[in-house]
Design goal:
Pfam families: Inos-1-P_synth, NAD_binding_5. The protein is α/β, with parallel strands linked by helices. It is built from 13 helices and eleven strands. The longest helix is centred in the last third of the chain and has 21 residues, at 344-364.
């Protein structure tokens, strides 16, 4: 049986057979949500791959906090004036669920993040009901050790979970967003986990966003299915810190006609990212996007590398340091050094919410295929996107205007 996604209808109209799978999570199945016709037109699902990780937990908590008026939408472009007329789904209309291979409940995960200073103290308690509701919609992912299911069986099972989520919550649509740990680039033809989930999203009729450096829809075996799916999809590897700065500084050097001789970097990070990126193969996948930004904006690849060090004591915080050696007028040697210190989850979460809303609206508007207009958010954007942040921002604003409903 082929592992590629088969053509499917929208998740709101697909067959009832997929609803026969058990509901996610322990205990009784969540009751179907009773909604009005107006609710059904506006409620949008966000299905997170890696739904109990730091980024996902921060996104779910942050969405609930902003929707309730407990915190301002700092870092969310979609809450800024240029996007006010796009008819994006309201934050209060987003319904969260997802896959994960760990079983730590979302409320406890949020409490751990609050203890580490990622989330404000007391916020998980204030939003306990929202976190518990999202946790009930998280189901076991895979493949786990010893799983003997074929690729197609895994894809079908994941797609069934996504479809059941949409039907159970009476949603207009759902966007699948990969925020799981970075995996090494595949060595053979087999689909890695990220590609199994991406194929499942297509089979379930769900738009797809890859916020990680993992392969996802970029696997050669999924190229034809992605082209034929009739769904919008975006990206690879969210741009949150060091590469964000590179996408600004690279064009600056080029526009000032300053020759960059070497550009070296170091990342110190802990948490799940630090552990997964301790694998050299996973780190190589992560660094590819950082190098692409320099190649695209400078027109050449300078000497130097990016080193990633796992420092568990840092938890969800990271430090990124860059050393840039460049030539000035008459060959004068100069150096620029930058240091970026921040919380990766807090940097990433608002971008995840932005992307989910923008891609959901693109789906509603009938847009299909890769969305290079969303390159602003990615280290490795879809073909056709510039790597320079100012040009990416202009493309994003043009995309926002395109999403405005026709009057």
């Amino acid at each position: 049986m082929s592992a590629e996604p088969r053509p499917t209808t929208s998740p709101t109209t697909s067959g009832a057979a997929r609803d026969a799978r058990p509901a996610p999570g322990p205990g009784p199945a969540p009751a179907p949500v009773a909604t009005t016709a107006e609710d059904r037109a506006t409620r949008v699902g966000v299905w997170l791959i890696g739904a109990r990780g730091s980024v996902a937990t921060t996104a779910v908590t942050g969405c609930a906090a902003v929707a309730a008026g407990l915190h301002p939408p700092t870092g969310m472009l979609t809450e800024a004036p240029p996007f006010a007329s796009c008819a994006l789904p309201a934050l209060s209309s987003l319904v969260f669920g997802g896959h994960d291979t760990v079983d730590c409940p979302l409320p406890k995960r949020a409490e751990a993040l609050a203890a580490g200073g990622v989330l404000p103290h007391g916020l998980p308690t204030a939003l306990a009901a929202d976190l518990a509701a999202a946790d009930r919609e998280i189901t076991a992912g895979g493949p786990l050790p010893g799983d003997i299911r074929t690729e197609d069986q895994l894809i079908e099972a994941f797609a069934a979970d996504m479809t059941a989520f949409v039907r159970r919550n009476d949603l207009a649509r759902a966007v699948v967003v990969n925020v799981s740990s970075t995996e090494p680039a595949p060595a053979g033809s087999a689909l890695p986990p990220s590609s199994l989930y991406a194929a499942a999203a297509l089979r379930a009729g769900c738009p797809y966003v890859n916020f990680t450096p993992s392969t996802g829809l970029h696997h050669p075996r999924l190229r034809e299915a992605a082209s034929a799916c009739g769904l919008p999809y975006a990206g690879r590897d969210g741009k949150t810190g060091q590469t964000l700065l590179r996408s600004v500084l690279g064009p600056m050097f080029a526009q000032r006609a300053l020759t960059v001789r070497a550009w070296s970097g170091t990342n110190l990070l802990g948490g799940g990212d630090g552990a997964s990126l301790a694998d050299p193969a996973a780190a190589a996948a992560k660094n590819a996007g950082k190098e692409r930004v320099l190649a695209d904006t400078l027109g050449t690849v300078p000497e130097g590398e990016v080193h990633i060090d796992d420092v568990p004591a840092l938890g969800d915080w990271k430090t990124a340091w860059d050393h840039i050696a460049f030539d000035g007028f008459l060959g004068s040697r100069m150096v620029l050094q930058t240091t970026w210190q921040g919380c990766d989850s807090a940097l990433a979460a608002p971008l995840v919410l932005d992307l989910a809303r923008l891609v959901a609206r693109a789906h509603e508007a009938g847009l299909t295929g890769p969305r290079p207009e969303l390159g602003f958010y990615f280290k490795d954007p879809d073909d056709g996107a510039s790597s320079a942040l100012p040009r990416q921002y202009d493309a994003l604003l043009a995309f926002a205007r395109r999403l405005e409903p026709t009057r």
